[in-house]
Design brief:
heterodimer; A: alpha/beta; TIM Barrel; Alpha-Beta Plaits; 2 domains; eight-stranded parallel β-barrel; four-stranded antiparallel beta sheet; about 30% helix; about 20% strand; B: alpha/beta; Fumarate Reductase Iron-sulfur Protein, Chain B, domain 2; FAD/NAD(P)-binding domain; 3 domains; five-stranded parallel beta sheet; 18 helices; about 40% helix; globular; binds flavin-adenine dinucleotide; binds flavin mononucleotide; binds iron/sulfur cluster
């Protein structure tokens, strides 16, 4: 059994699975249940100044039969009294002294920040997370993403906090900005102990076609919400990678958040540099039991690969995420259809013919429905393999010699970047584009 | 004419006995697993006698942790592969799936289970290992699913296990009794080999135990996984005629000989339980022109599951209800059965005087229950049986009234499913471990 435990900027946790600050961590009852179910840590629902929540709070994107592929909320920070939360933090720590309890905080003035830090330290919290994320409601009051979007303000607050805190401090970033490295660097300059990301993304998940109001509808009106769930994972992964590769940030422990639901998601975040992961939507969808699948899968992965600790593979994918200009222009793959597996849906054919490179032909004589790749026209874009409904039916086969390599950067340095259109994979050279009239062939 | 041609080759046999639950391919497994809702405290899990964490293993399949899925299954049920194919899932896990309430087909849990475990077995994945030797030895009588499950569990705890089996193959009725369209011999034996390779329990074949005295001296505890005995006598006139066979004996020969046995033109199967349905389906699939199921009471009184009856009817079996056999006709060799009609009045079955009639046939299969192995069991000191000759156990630890003996499977429940035997075996192993630990 591999060792799943982590020491995250001084916060010890039996495993990297943490609940994100959100409704699943609203109370001691919930956090206790979660630890009992197998979660290693919990970031408490954000504590701060008194708020009032509206009724009708969540909306979601259902993609076909998948409910909550994307999730959206207009909830504020905790609406439960601070004293109750502090008491429950203390109680949870008594039952689970070795689990990580992190207090998420959001207040306004320096005095308020420094006071609430003392409060949660006294309650026994193992760490603090600064919520600079909420993109709805709180930001209208100058907090949450209003801070996350202003690196200088963010840095100032981090400095106030670092002055007062005796336990590790995690700065949680908002994705509602152009470059995540801007607030990331501000947090680093403020000497944060760690960074977590992402909080939710500003969103409107849909409009009610009868009342013309955005979901979730509050008495005929709505407001932008914060988007999360499986749909946001790619954005989170990318932002995580930006921080993990940045020379002035990469030494800072990172906690990955956004759309994590399965063991594969967990491994992907760790491979891009996360040391712990945080989960909200998946727990809101399936309850705390979802952690069993994550843990079993992570253990299986580590056993299969021979890893003993999380640190053995943390960040292992980072060297392979590079800039476009470093990609090998000589690399060539061509689609291949396994005729025995093909079920004749012809989605690949129409995708390629209508929307890619006219590299699949379909000879319909004798009722045939099995398409064929036109090798010389296939640019290796992957579209057909992505639309094919049969596992491993279309595979992308390597066709380069495996030896030669040249990148855009190398060509730039060598002064050999093209001055005319001479892409090997585009129309004119080895590749044909059907004539304009061919589009109307079916009419005659 | 029957629906099936007589199979004369291995391939024809396979066609007539095509698998009812064929292996899923990757695409089907992916789509099917995507449908699972991951219910909280899932009803499917509650309906599984071994309590497999079904939503977990289905999610693991969906996230391509197929080996992890197999481990989740075997963790609860050592015969997880066989059970995926042979369990009556419609009345167990799949019958409980919440989709049924929406009139949407339930998850195909059995086939998903098989998909995962089959991969692990085919790839010879090492999922388990024996515990370090604790110096204790356990003997088991019978190598059926109850003993196999108990053996696996005890090996993980470090016990040495010797299983004594009268026949020359392991897994008891799983290989000798279950209908060939549910599982092939090869599949059954591959799972066994997969477990034995990793856990290393020893099976002594062709080794019937007639007295357990030696075992008592040489082992720290004994597990009785003897199952049930041969088909019970009907005490009918003419029962000893040639062409009259017991269902379990008929099925055993079928499973071992496949197309090499031949079934005559007209077969009468007597009984109304699942074994009768199996024997009738099998006779029809072996190419009998006519297979007639004869049951004493009404159709609705049959002990068999509806789906098993429908399967028999679907293979071309016809039925006679409310008929009781009186005599097997024929001159040395059976050529018919004399029946008398019955009616049920105030819950009591009564024959209708003067309603006797004869149905001609070439073979009679008696599917009227298996006898208990009471003689063997009564020989064991202090071992008590209930009024139906089932071994009495404490269901907390499957210990019998003789503390050195534990028991499980058909010998305890009087005949149920492999999945129940697998559960008993696992629980008994835990019981043995606790008892030995507590008693030094
Ligand atoms: C016709 C038929 C069809 C069935 N179909 C299904 C099905 O589709 N699905 C399902 O789940 N279940 C089915 N069952 C039930 C299932 O096979 C049994 O419940 C299960 O096999 C019981 O397991 P067991 O370990 O208790 O006993 P068994 O499987 O009966 O194994 C007992 C073993 O002990 C050996 N033995 C007995 N006495 C001695 C002795 N003195 N010394 C040495 N060895 C001994 C026997 O040779 C045998 O190998 C079916 C049963 C029958 C008869
Ligand atoms: C209903 C809801 C309430 C949330 N409340 C908070 C909060 O109080 N503080 C906070 O830092 N993040 C909050 N979040 C954001 C989550 O902690 C998390 O960053 C985000 O949901 C992305 O993770 P996910 O895709 O796993 O849901 C909330 C999210 C949701 C859905
Ligand atoms: S989830 Fe619970 S609190 Fe929310 S609307 Fe439903 S019943 Fe009410
Ligand atoms: S998409 Fe796949 S299955 Fe459909 S026609 Fe193309 S190759 Fe065949
Ligand atoms: S009841 Fe059905 S949908 Fe629910 S967890 Fe079980 S298999 Fe999945």
């Amino acid at each position: 059994m591999p060792d799943l435990s982590i020491n995250f900027a001084g916060i010890k946790s039996p495993n990297p699975f943490w609940l994100a600050s959100a409704p699943p961590t609203n109370s001691g009852y919930q956090v206790m249940k979660a630890f009992d179910a197998g979660w290693g840590g919990a970031v408490w629902k954000t504590l701060g100044i008194p708020v009032i929540n509206v009724s009708s709070r969540y909306g979601s994107i259902n993609y076909r039969d998948t409910r909550m592929a994307g999730f959206n909320n207009i909830e504020l920070i905790t609406d439960r009294p601070l004293a109750d939360n502090l008491k429950e933090i203390e109680e949870v720590k008594k039952f689970f002294p070795n689990h990580a309890v992190i207090a998420s905080l959001m207040v306004e003035s320096k005095a308020e920040w420094q006071q609430i830090i003392k409060d949660v330290e006294n309650a026994g919290a193992d760490g603090i997370e600064l919520n600079f994320g909420c993109p709805h409601g709180m930001c209208e009051r100058g907090m949450g993403s209003a801070v996350g979007q202003e690196p200088e303000v963010l840095q100032t607050i981090v400095e106030w906090v670092m002055e007062a805190a005796n336990i590790p401090v995690i700065t949680k970033l908002s994705p509602n900005i152009s470059h995540i490295t801007d607030p990331g660097l501000a947090a680093a300059r403020g000497k944060t102990d760690a960074i977590s990301l992402i909080n939710t993304i500003k969103s409107i998940v849909g409009i009610d076609l009868d009342t013309y109001a955005p979901y979730p509808v509050v008495d005929g009106k709505g407001t932008n919400g914060g988007y999360c769930g499986p749909a946001v994972k790619p954005i989170a992964l990318h932002m995580l990678k930006d921080l993990a590769q940045h020379p002035e940030i990469k030494h800072i422990p990172l906690s990955g958040i956004g759309g994590i639901e399965t063991w594969r998601d967990v491994v992907e975040f760790i491979l891009l540099g996360a040391e712990s992961v945080q989960v909200c939507t998946a727990a809101m969808h399936y309850g705390f039991g979802i952690v069993r699948e994550m843990e079993a899968g992570l253990v299986q992965f580590m056993n299969d690969k021979g890893y003993e600790t999380i640190y053995d593979f943390k960040g292992k994918a980072l060297p392979n995420v590079t800039e476009w200009k470093h990609l090998n222009l000589k690399h060539k793959v061509v689609a291949n259809i396994n005729k025995d597996k093909c079920i004749g849906c012809d989605l690949c054919y129409i995708a390629c013919d209508d929307a890619a490179h006219q590299a699949i032909k379909l000879d319909k004589s004798d009722g045939n429905r099995i398409p064929e790749i036109i090798d010389e026209n296939c640019v290796g874009c992957n579209l057909c393999a992505l639309v094919c409904p049969v596992e491993e039916c279309i595979t992308m086969e390597k066709r380069d010699d495996g030896k030669s390599s040249v990148t855009w950067e190398e060509r730039t340095l060598a002064g050999s970047i093209p001055t005319t259109f001479d892409d090997d994979l585009a129309g004119g050279k080895h590749h044909f584009v059907p004539s304009v009239e061919d589009a109307l062939k079916h009419r005659k | 004419m029957g629906e099936y041609k007589r199979p004369t080759t291995a391939i024809e046999f396979e066609q007539n006995f095509a698998q009812k639950k064929p292996l899923m391919n990757d695409t089907e497994a992916y789509y099917e697993s995507s449908r699972c809702l991951y219910c909280y405290d899932a009803p499917c899990v509650q309906a599984c006698p071994t309590g497999i964490d079904i939503p977990l293993f289905i999610k693991q399949i969906n996230t391509k942790n197929t080996v992890g899925a197999a481990k989740t299954i075997f963790d609860s049920n050592w015969l997880g592969n066989a059970c995926g194919k042979i369990c009556p899932t419609g009345v167990l896990c799949e019958g409980a799936c919440v989709y049924n309430h929406q009139d949407v087909p339930p998850l195909q849990i059995g086939r998903l289970q098989n998909y995962a475990t089959d991969k692990a077995i085919a790839e010879k994945r090492n999922l388990f290992h024996a515990g370090s030797d604790n110096g204790k030895k356990i003997a088991m009588v019978g190598a059926g699913p109850a003993s196999i499950a108990a053996a696996c569990e005890l090996r993980t705890l470090g016990y040495a296990v010797d299983i004594f089996e009268a026949k020359d193959k392991p897994t008891g009725l799983t290989v000798y009794g279950i209908a060939p369209y549910k599982i092939t011999n090869e599949e059954v034996l591959n799972e066994l080999a997969f477990l034995q390779d990793q856990l290393g329990f020893v099976i002594h074949y062709n080794h019937p135990i007639t007295s357990t005295k030696d075992l008592e001296e040489n082992y720290d505890a004994i597990f009785l996984g003897v199952g049930l005995g041969p088909t019970a006598e009907l005490n009918l006139k003419g029962e000893d005629k040639q062409g009259v066979v017991g269902a379990v004996e008929f099925i055993e020969e079928l499973r071992m000989q496949h197309h090499k046995i031949s079934v005559p033109d007209k077969v009468i199967v007597i009984g109304g339980g699942n074994t009768a349905m199996d024997a009738a389906s099998e006779s029809a699939r072996m190419g009998a022109n006519e297979t007639i199921l004869a049951y004493r009471r009404d159709k609705s009184d049959m002990g068999a599951y509806d789906f098993e009856y429908e399967l028999a009817v679907g293979s071309g079996v016809t039925s006679l209800f409310n008929v009781q056999p009186l005599e097997i006709m024929g001159n040395g060799k059976a050529n018919g059965v004399k029946f008398i009609k019955t009616v049920t009045e105030n819950g009591r079955l009564r024959t209708v005087e003067g309603s006797e009639f004869i149905v001609a046939c070439d073979m009679v299969i008696k599917a009227t229950g298996q006898a208990k192995l009471a003689d063997f069991l009564r020989d064991i000191d202090g071992l008590e049986l209930d009024s139906k000759k089932r071994i009495i156990v404490n269901t907390a630890n499957y210990q019998t009234t003789n503390p050195k003996y534990f028991a499980g499977g058909d010998a305890v429940n009087g005949g149920a499913e492999v999945v129940n035997a697998a559960y008993h075996g696992k629980m008994a192993a835990k019981g043995i471990h606790e008892w030995i630990t507590d008693n030094g």
